[in-house]
Amino acid sequence: MIVVSLVYFTKYFFYRLELFPNQKRHTAEMNSKGKALIFLLCVTTICVSWRGYTSCSLPQDKSPCACERCLSEDDPWFMKRFNKSVEPFLSANYNLSEDAFNWWKRLQGEKGNFSTFRQTVDRLFLTVPPSPDVLESSPDRCRTCAVVGNSGNLRRSHYGPLIDFQDVIIRMNAGHTEGYEADVGTRTTHRVMYPESSVDLDNTTHLVLAPFKILDFEWLTKALTTGFHGRSYAPVKSKIKSNMDLVMVLNPAFMRYVHVMWLEKKGKYPSTGFLALILALHMCDEVSVFGYGADSDGNWSHYWEELMDKKLKTGAHPGDTEYRMIQELDEQQKLRFYTGF
């Protein structure tokens, strides 16, 4: 507006000089040097104003990120489900409510009480960082995420370079990269897993524990140090290779929030893949999703192996509901969903 006003002022000034040539004026304003000086002043003012426009005249509602579109922008459909105040990760100072614990303990029939849970979590945070390592939002950056599922539709997709281009790359469970680089990429910054699906990690990847029982916290503490020798419903690794400084733990309250707000309590509880997807919405400004969806028989098959149990379907998880929500998020332009081939 400043620039436009100065342009009109300049035109008006010279229009007045030409319209009333006989009007009494000061000699300095009448001669050509005076006109040239005024013109130069106006041009200089316009240039300075233009250069300083973005830094000096920023709007009050400056975008919270440097992306073309930020997830936190006000949208009734999205904000009805998205709750930024829910902490995605546990920390040493976080106090889980007993109500949230009672919901969580039913997921896999946990027998331990709230006191045992808190003591076990406290011991874990003597071994791993007391607070999560997250990249905070900023108006000066655009945090991009790739969430890479394990669906068989990733075969021959050639999504690898696109996946590797993102800042944060989240994989889950035993998702392979070696031998499948062209389709799934090579980089991994975060891997979401639980004891029964755990794999060794390199020194730069965050281990993100998705806990479903108190034993999972105990396993992580011991698997990173002395070795775990307990038993679960399936074999678990006694020791795991991981950078202890990069360990993060999903918050049971966050898991409940995903089940209630995003899946409307459908199914017994969210899959690891869907938890990872909603986690990405909380961690990043732009989210791209790959490798989600069942095969033609309705099973969650994996791109690196042939499925043996053809009646597995999606287990205790609401696979159809999760898939429809991903499609809806894509339609609402809250993420980009690459469906594969």
Secondary-structure topology with pairs:
Layout: H1 2-19, H2 27-30, H3 32-51, H4 53-56, H5 76-79, H6 98-104, H7 114-124, E1 144-148, H8 160-164, E2 168-172, H9 181-184, E3 190-193, E4 206-209, H10 214-223, E5 248-249, H11 252-262, H12 272-283, E6 286-290, H13 319-331, E7 336-338
Parallel strand pairs: 1-2, 1-6, 2-3, 3-4, 4-5, 6-7
Main location: Golgi
Organism: Sander lucioperca
Protein name: CMP-N-acetylneuraminate-beta-galactosamide-alpha-2,3-sialyltransferase 1
Number of helices: 13
Shape field: globular
Annotation, overall tally of beta strands:
7
Note the beta-strand portion: 5-15%
Task: Tell me the Rg in angstroms.
Answer: 29 Å
The CATH superfamily name of the largest domain is Glycosyl transferase family 29
Helix fraction by DSSP (H/I, runs of at least 4): 25-40%
Instruction: Based on the coordinates given, report the CATH architecture of the largest domain.
Output: Alpha-Beta Complex
CATH class of the largest domain: Alpha Beta
- Please describe the biggest sheet, giving its number of strands, its sense, and whether it closes into a barrel: 7 strands, parallel
The unreliable regions are 1-60
> Domains counted in the coordinates: how many?
2
Overall mean pLDDT: 84
CATH level 3 topology of the largest domain: sialyltransferase cstii, chain A
Distance between the termini: 51 Å
Main sheet strand line-up: 5-4-3-2-1-6-7
Structural category: alpha/beta
Order of helices and strands: HHHHHHHEHEHEEHEHHEHE
Keywords: Disulfide bond, Glycoprotein, Glycosyltransferase, Golgi apparatus, Lipid metabolism, Membrane, Secreted, Signal-anchor, Transferase, Transmembrane, Transmembrane helix
InterPro entries: Beta-gal_alpha2-3_sialyltrans, Glyco_trans_29, GT29-like_sf, Sialyl_trans
Pathway: Protein modification; protein glycosylation; Glycolipid biosynthesis
GO cellular component, one term: Golgi cisterna membrane
